Amino acid sequence: MGKNIKFGTDGWRAVIAEDFTFENVKLIALAIADYLKKNNRDKKGVLIGYDNRFLSKEFSKQAGYALSSKGLRVYLSKESVPTPVVAFMLRELNLDGAVMITASHNPPKYNGIKFIPYYGGPAGDKITKEIEKILAKLIVDKNTDIADFRDAEIKRFDDNFKYVSNLGSYKIKIQKMVDKDLIKKSNLKLVADTMHGSGSKILPEILKDSLGLEAKILNNDRDPLFGGMLPDPSESNLDLMKNEILKNNLDLGVALDGDADRFGVIDGKGIFISPNKAIPIILYHLLKTRRFDRTDVVVRTVATTHLIDEICRKNKIKLLETPVGFKYIGMEMLNNNVIIGGEESGGLSIKNHIPEKDGILADMLLIEIQSFLKKNYGKKYLSDYLNEIYSEFGTFYNTRIDIKISADKKDSVIEFFFSQKGKLICGKKVIDIIDKDGVKLLIENKSWVLIRPSGTEPLIRCYIEAIDKTHFEAIKDFVKQNIKILINYKCTIK
Q1: pLDDT in tens, 177-194
Q2: Spatial CA neighbour of 69 closest among 177, 11, 157, 145
Q3: What digits encode the pLDDT tens for the residues 60-101?
Q4: Crossing angle of helices 382-393 and 307-314, rounded to 10°
Q5: Are 442 and 448 a contacting pair, CB within 8 Å?
Q6: Residue 10: exposure state from Cβ atoms within 10 A (0-12, 13-18, ≥19)
Q7: Backbone phi, psi, residue 72, to 5°
Q8: Mapping DSSP to helix (H, G, I), strand (E, B) and coil, where does residue 274 land?
Q9: 143: exposed, middle or buried (C-beta count within 10 Å: 0-12, 13-18, 19+)?
Q10: Model confidence over 298-343: pLDDT tens digits?
Q11: N or C: which terminal CB in the chain sees fewer CB atoms within 10 Å?
Q12: Are 23 and 59 in contact (CB under 8 A)?
């Protein structure tokens, strides 16, 4: 009971009925309640949301029972709701914290819990470690009884949530973050894939009801199996959307993951625009269309494209680099005026919004950009816009390679790449090494490699970027071949 509970980069996730059980959900919720009480954040209430996964609503009620048994006021959603909406409503209602039942983009057999503190962003390491410490003590003390929770209280906090479940204020805020009039006048034809997730209701409402766009919506019914696919808006999962675009000559396709905090996009030519390409496009557009102060900054993770750096350098904007995980970007958003914070896995937020990744906002910004292109240039798409950016800053080739290895081999791989400082990799010198998350090799001619062990899986993640295609391919071969040698060829590379 509770032995396998450990928070990762964004909450705790586990296989339903194996480790993700009602008992463990109760334990985590009790630990969160004790954390809130210990830190004097138990007076205003806790918001609980959930996604479309199997038993998510029931798990959310279990969390509500546990929190309420500790004397906290609980506001429980009556319907599935996106993670960014929960974070927004938490701040809007000035509550003490929020709990989100979701496994985000993971396979259907998983579920998970995210704790969102009062500031409306992912819980940082200090908070999650404190919750884990409280959890360990609860397990030892076996002080987990919630039998005194009364059915009447379930009805009470359900009824109190009526005004919370009206998401109008979130929809209004999202439309203020973009050029609403430009979008409404654009006559864009688009398709949106909500991937059977918790964004299935709110995104169509914004697109069709609020903005009057001609939008076809895909996969907006609840399916806990997500149509037999991962609820992850990566290129391999968006063939249906791509076919709709090409078949019907549409301007754009946008997508959300299972809890709507990640985005995906395919342009009118049927070209998938990865987050490593979309985030620089959005930054470039924001700098051309918004006002910013000299003290404003841009934030990216250590694994995200350096094309962002080049755009910042030309515009004399300070860039901050964080470890992998939006919780680190969120902290910078709380401490600085951040124009945009982004990560290569599909997380993004911008100035004057929540310090949490928001796939709905990202999709709306991309819709604004396509509206801008259509108004000013006719049949011009995001990939065309990206090529213009490349012509100004150079073409950036990047990829991520996941290599399965045993835990005992990870250290030797990391040590090998640490030893490369000052050496030549494919004819280019390693000029510096960054160790804030794994080992990152900065190589001559704007190339870099990040080797980062997964904290939850038997994997080494290898991120590679270069501005020369031939050198890019050579670095990929160098990384794969040397890791194979280090782990005696007993690995799977994909």
Answers
A1: 999 999 999 999 999 999
A2: 145
A3: 999 999 999 999 999 998 899 999 999 999 999 999 999 999
A4: 70
A5: yes
A6: buried
A7: -85, 145
A8: coil
A9: exposed
A10: 999 999 999 999 999 999 999 999 999 999 999 999 999 999 999 9
A11: C
A12: no
Pairing assessment for the beta strands 397-404 and 459-466 based on DSSP bridges:
antiparallel
Instruction: Give residue-wise pLDDT tens across range 137-167.
Output: 998 887 666 655 544 344 344 444 444 555 7
**CA-to-CA distance for 445 and 427, rounded, in angstroms?**
11
- Tens of pLDDT, residues 440-469: 999 999 999 999 987 667 889 999 999 999
d(CA 138, CA 27): 8
Tokens of 270: 């049927």
| DSSP class per residue in 68-118 | HHTT--EEE-SS---HHHHHHHHHHTT-SEEEEE--TTS-TTEEEEEEEET
Q: How far apart are CA 76 and CA 58, in angstroms?
A: 11
Separation CA 17–CA 108 (nearest Å): 12
**What's the angle, vertex CA 45, arms to CA 40 and CA 46, rounded to 5?**
100
CB contact burial 63-97 (16+ within 10 A = b; e otherwise): bbbbbbbbebbbbbbeebbbbbbbbbbbbbeebbb
CA–CA separation, 338 and 352 (whole Å): 8
Distance CA 405, CA 231 (A): 26
Looking only at the bridges linking them, the beta strands covering 97-101 and 110-117 are: antiparallel
Angle between helices 56-69 and 151-160 (to 10 degrees): 110
Tokens of 250: 């549409």
Return the number of other C-beta atoms located less than 10 Å from residue 228's C-beta.
Answer: 7
Question: What length does the chain have?
Answer: 494
Strand partners, 441: 433, 449
CA distance 261 to 472: 30
Max alpha carbon distance in the chain (Å)?
A: 71
Written as six digits, the tokens of 210 are 């609020």
Tell me what the mean pLDDT of segment 341-369 comes to.
Answer: 97
Above 90 in pLDDT, residue 381? yes
In the block, residue with structure tokens 């160098």: 478
**pLDDT value of position 405:** 87
